[in-house]
Every structure is written in C-alpha cells, then in structure tokens.
Specification:
Layout lengths: L1 E9 L10 E9 L4 H14 L16 H6 L6 H6 L1 H14 L3 E8 L5 H27 L11 E3 L5 H4 L1
Parallel strand pairs: 1-4
Antiparallel strand pairs: 1-2, 2-3
Helix pairs in contact: 1-4
C-alpha cells in the first residue's frame, strides 16, 4: 500500500482571526495500481491542454514553486481556468483506481490569532498522529501487504523543528 498525505489550514465559519481548522488528508492505494493511476492522471492533464507532467495540487494557488521547478509557470493560468474540471476528473480517477480516502480535521480551540499561532504545532502533531494511527490500523489488515511507504507533504516551517 502507498499512503499519500497532505496538510491544509482553513478558515472556518467561526470568525477566527487566523486559519482555525487543520485538515490532514490523503489516500491509500495498492502499490501495483500506482503506475496505471499516474498514466491516467497524465492523460487527464494532456486532455485539458496541460503538459502531462505538470504538477497539480488541490490548492492551485500553492503551485508557483513546483511549476517554476519544472519550467511550467506558463501553465498556471490554464490550471486556474480549468481547476474545477481538473479537480473533478483527478478525484474521479483516484476513486476509480480503488484508493481509500481518509482525513483528520481539527477545529482550533480559540478565535485569537496569538493563541492559534502558539497552538498550531500541537494541532498539527495531534492531527498527524490521529491520521497516522488510522492509516496504520487500515494497513495492519490483511489486504495491505507487507510493506507500507508513507509520502508526506509536510509543512515547511515544521521540518527543522520536528525532524
């Protein structure tokens, strides 16, 4: 199995001064289904006028650095203009590949920016631990096989602090 995870911070409906909902989500997919999924994703991107190797993320606003690294910044406007279609098609491909989707969402306990800033690392740690525990339980089942590789898009500010 291949678990793939990502984290996002969102503004909830409670009027907080900073993002007050932390979501870590991802999917698990059988290892032998990864290459066909990647081929399907490349086909979807090409069918929508993009380079088949163009990086994509759910949050299209967060793509400047990956696009620049692949010399594909000129694709940014096309990504944005077709974002709804791309998201729908890519998510559909993921689901039809047999992937299992999972998530861990936590609402922060304060609406104050200072408190949210101080508690962010604890929330990320708790949410990641919650998600990892659930993914581990899933992977311990018979169908998961003998090996699990976890791929993470870890928050940049956390790397030096936690690893």
């Amino acid at each position: 199995m291949e678990p793939v995870c990502d984290n996002s911070e969102l503004n909830g409906i409670w009027g907080a001064e900073a993002p007050d909902v932390l979501v870590i989500g991802g999917y698990l997919i059988e290892r032998d289904k990864v290459p066909p999924l990647f081929e399907q994703l490349q086909h979807i991107k090409a069918a929508n006028g993009l380079d088949p190797h163009c990086p994509v993320k759910w949050n299209f606003k967060d793509l400047d650095r990956p696009l620049a690294a692949h010399d594909l910044l000129h694709q940014k406007e096309m990504l944005r203009s077709k974002s709804n279609v791309l998201r729908t098609q890519l998510l559909s491909a993921l689901i039809t590949s047999g992937a299992t989707l999972f998530t861990s969402a936590i609402r922060a306990h304060s609406n104050k920016k200072q408190v949210l800033g101080r508690t962010r690392e604890d929330l990320v740690g708790y949410s990641f631990g919650n998600l990892l525990m659930r993914a581990g339980l899933y992977c311990s089942e018979e169908r998961a096989g003998r090996r699990v590789d976890i791929l993470l898009d870890w928050p940049e500010k956390m790397i030096g602090d936690r690893l």
